[in-house]
Write a structure and sequence with these properties.
- By secondary structure, the protein is mainly α.
- It has helices spanning 3-15, 23-34, 42-49, 53-65, 92-95, 107-124, 129-139, 148-160, 206-209, 228-235, and strands at residues 40-41, 69-72, 82-85, 100-101, 104-105, 164-168, 183-187.
- The chain has a three-stranded antiparallel β-sheet.
- α6 packs across α7 (129-139), α6 (107-124) crosses α8 and α7 (129-139) crosses α8.
- The chain is elongated and about 75 Å long.
- Residues 1-14 and 191-204 have low confidence and may be disordered.
Length: 236
Amino acid sequence: MNRAQAIKRKQPESNSPSQSLTEHERTLYNVIKNKQDMGIWTRDMKRETNLPDNVVNKSLKVLQAKNLIKEVVNIQNKGRKHYMATEFEPSKEITGGEWYSEGSLDTEFILRLKEICTKRIFQLKVATLEGVTDSIKRSGIINMDLTKQQIEEIVKALVLDNEIIEVRSNGMGEFTSIPIGTVCYKCVRRGSIGGEPKPGALASIPCGVCPRINQCTPNGIISPQTCIYYTKWLDF
């Protein structure tokens, strides 16, 4: 290999932002990058690298300026500075998934979707999860591509609200078109206006609009102890 070839081969590496890092910056960058889509809290990165606070803070600024890392919002601990490599997108455990917008629970969207699902089930008399999903997609009432999992989480929340009940098809009567044993849903409450379902009593508290309430456990990632919305509601 002649000198000209060597220069051409090395040049892309020298242009890479990660090639010009100091030892401390590279150590910190590797720790953050290794956490992938979960990212890492500043206190944890200080503990893992054993670097002084001032070195970590200075290195973080350099890494951000070089666009190698980014600060992300952790919905469970918004007061903590959380970082991850720019090549990764935050996991659902960090962002809260589709139900969160800019780090906050999108209660308006969830309530609207719960209302739509309840009305569809009421109109269908009895419906499977696939039936509800297809009905909403065909109606075009929601201007976004909802997944079956999203609809399932909303429907499960409605069951907990006692707005609908979960039953299994026996293949007779209203279940004629549904295979025996298939899980179905029916409305259990009806209002005085137009025979439409009434909003659930749990809608006034955060748990009533949270589609992940069935995943909420005392020591889990989603829990009452770390839920800022539940804490605010209790304080109120």
